[in-house]
Structure formats: structure tokens, C-alpha cells
């Protein structure tokens, strides 16, 4: 057989590529939710700071990272479109209002710091500061609403599941943001940042309980679906991680706290993926294997992803290494 014929004959090395791409899509979503999540959380905490120096420190902390972090949202959408085009078409057509809302808030979040720095006028900075906070809070809320509606197969933009998942995701970003700001801000930010992170962690756990209660009623499998051993293990682990996060944050072990927040984020997305599988679009009953592209393009995409994703990972390692360490007084957005 020619190389093209061999690629079309079956999956590479006999791997379960539909399931691997399902995992990859949700991993990309979790990566965006964590990396841009601490930017969102920093933006929410921005609203609670009192001095110009503290607010400038927040902007300087996220400045080198936020636009690069958003790449993962594009990669998530691109992977979903490339691997599961029917699911992509159905989801984005049903939830186009949420999609426009997410894009609008991301634009607002990105534009606001640029405009904030253009003039040192109190009223100008107050309004653009509010725009920055609004974008930072609404973006994860709407993203959570989208994920909640996707999970339960709802065709409406505003649902109870969407609201509770949106609140849960927003609180989780504040958890990440507090750890990131403690890591980058050090003595330039008030100790209240630790308090905000602790309060957000408690709120996140309460929101998870409410979310699980709503899902027990709303999911087709009900409570039985939530009693899956993997789900139970993830929930129990989340409680332990949240406790570890609070202890690490209180001891100013910022990197450890940020790591705990990362695992919490990936764990939350894993719960969504486990509850959804084998469906990829619960609204239509479309399954992972029923919507995956044909063998040849799937194999080609897998080869391309195996080459490109390590390069993307190297880029982010270089980026975060170049801007590692706490913010200095000379640094600005």
C-alpha cells in the first residue's frame, strides 16, 4: 500500500484516536481555563484593591501573559472543529449568543488595560478599570455557562445549570488569581489578597456542592451518574487540594498554591468530560465515535498535533521563564 492508503486503512498504531482527541479537546479547554483563569482572577481582585500602585502591580503581573494564554481558547475551538465537526456546528449554532458574549468580554478585558494606561486621569482610569473587572468576571462566567449547557444538552443560553457552573468557574479563577498575584506581587500587594483567595476557595467548594445537586436532578443518569467512582474520587481529591491550597497560600508558598489551583481546574474539567462521555453533544445524542472525522484526516491531524503541540509547550516554557519572579518597581503593563 502507498503511504496515503496506509493512513486511510486504520488508526495510527491501532490507537483509540476518537477517545484521545476527546481527551485532548478537554485538556485544551482546561489549559485555557487555568492559564487565562488566573488572569481573570487577577482582574476580579483588581476591583478590591485600593491604591494605584496595587492596581498597576496587577496589570504588570498579567501583562506578559494574558494574550498568549488566550491562544488555548482558539486551539480548543480549532480542535473541536477539526475532530468533531458535527458537534462543533451544533454547539456553536445553539449557543451563538454565549459565544458572542465570551468574545465580547475577552475583547473588553484585553482593551481595558491598554486604555487604562493611556491617560492618568482619575475618571478615565476608574471607568476603564471597571471595564477591566467586568470583562475579567463575565468571561469565565459565560464560559462556565456554556460548559454547563453543553454538559446537560440544553439549547438555551440562560439555564440554572449554566448559572451555577458559571459561578463555580468564576470563583475558581479567583482562587488561581490570588495565588498568581501572591507569587508575582509579593510585598507590593496587600495581605488581603490571601484572604480573597481563601474566601474564593470556600465559595468554590460550596458552589461545587450546589452544582452537583443541580446536576443530580438535571442529568439523565441523575445521582447514579455522579456516584461514578472516578467522579467521587475527583470530588474528594478537590476537597483535599482546596485545603492544601489554603494552607500553602497562608504560608506564602505561592507556587504550591498555584499548582493546587491548576489541579483543581483540570479536575473540574475532567468531571465534565467523564459525565459527558461517550457523548460529545448530549443535546443531539451525538457520540465521540459517531462524530469523529474519517480515518485519513484523523491520522493526519494526529501527526500534526504530535509535532505542533510540543512546540507550543516550549513557547510557553520560554515565555514563563523569561518573565518569572516577582514584579519589580520598574515594571509596568
How would you portray this structure in words?
It is a single chain. By secondary structure, the protein is mainly alpha-helical. The chain has a single domain, classed as Formate dehydrogenase/DMSO reductase fold (Up-down Bundle), CATH 1.20.1630. 79% of the residues lie in helices and 2% in strands. Strands 1-2 form a two-stranded antiparallel sheet. α2 runs antiparallel to α3. The longest helix is centred in the middle third of the chain and has 31 residues. It starts with a helix and ends in an 11-residue tail after the last helix. The mean pLDDT is 92.
What's a concise summary of this model?
With 333 residues, the protein is mainly α. Helices cover 79% and strands 2% of the residues.
**What is the CATH topology assignment?**
Formate dehydrogenase/DMSO reductase fold
Order of helices and strands: HHHHHHHHHHHHHEEHH
Helix content: over 70%
Domain unit count: 1
Large-scale geometry: globular
Tally the beta strands.
2
Look at the helices and sheets and give the structural class. Answer: mainly alpha
User: What is the second-level CATH architecture?
Assistant: Up-down Bundle
Sheet with the most strands, sense and barrel status = 2 strands, antiparallel
Amino acid at each position: 500500500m502507498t503511504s496515503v492508503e496506509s493512513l486511510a486503512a486504520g488508526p495510527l498504531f491501532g490507537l483509540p484516536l476518537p477517545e484521545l482527541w476527546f481527551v485532548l479537546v478537554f485538556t485544551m479547554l482546561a489549559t485555557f481555563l487555568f492559564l487565562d483563569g488566573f488572569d481573570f482572577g487577577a482582574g476580579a481582585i483588581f476591583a478590591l484593591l485600593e491604591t494605584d500602585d496595587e492596581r498597576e502591580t496587577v496589570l504588570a503581573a498579567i501583562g506578559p501573559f494574558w494574550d498568549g494564554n488566550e491562544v488555548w481558547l482558539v486551539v480548543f475551538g480549532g480542535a473541536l472543529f477539526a475532530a468533531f465537526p458535527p458537534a462543533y456546528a451544533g454547539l456553536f449554532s445553539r449557543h451563538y449568543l454565549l459565544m458572542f458574549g465570551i468574545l465580547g468580554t475577552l475583547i473588553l478585558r484585553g482593551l481595558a488595560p491598554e486604555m487604562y494606561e493611556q491617560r492618568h486621569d482619575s475618571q478615565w482610569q476608574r471607568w476603564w478599570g471597571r471595564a477591566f473587572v467586568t470583562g475579567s468576571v463575565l468571561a469565565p462566567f459565560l464560559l462556565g455557562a456554556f460548559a454547563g449547557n453543553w454538559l446537560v444538552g440544553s439549547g438555551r443560553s440562560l439555564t440554572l445549570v449554566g448559572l451555577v457552573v458559571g459561578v463555580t468557574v468564576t470563583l475558581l479563577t479567583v482562587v488561581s488569581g490570588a495565588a498568581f498575584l501572591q507569587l508575582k506581587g509579593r510585598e507590593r500587594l496587600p495581605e488581603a489578597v490571601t484572604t480573597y483567595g481563601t474566601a474564593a476557595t470556600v465559595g468554590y467548594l460550596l458552589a461545587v456542592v450546589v452544582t452537583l445537586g443541580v446536576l443530580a436532578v438535571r442529568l439523565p443518569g441523575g445521582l447514579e451518574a455522579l456516584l461514578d467512582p472516578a467522579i467521587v474520587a475527583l470530588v474528594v481529591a478537590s476537597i483535599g487540594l482546596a485545603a492544601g491550597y489554603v494552607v500553602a497560600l497562608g504560608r506564602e508558598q505561592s507556587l504550591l498554591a498555584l499548582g493546587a489551583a491548576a489541579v483543581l481546574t483540570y479536575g473540574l474539567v475532567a468531571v465534565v468530560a467523564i459525565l459527558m462521555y461517550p457523548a460529545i453533544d448530549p443535546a443531539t445524542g451525538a457520540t465521540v465515535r459517531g462524530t469523529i472525522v474519517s480515518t485519513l484526516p484523523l491520522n493526519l491531524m494526529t501527526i500534526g498535533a504530535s509535532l505542533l503541540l510540543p512546540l507550543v509547550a516550549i513557547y510557553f516554557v520560554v515565555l514563563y521563564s523569561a518573565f518569572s519572579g516577582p514584579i519589580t518597581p520598574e515594571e509596568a503593563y
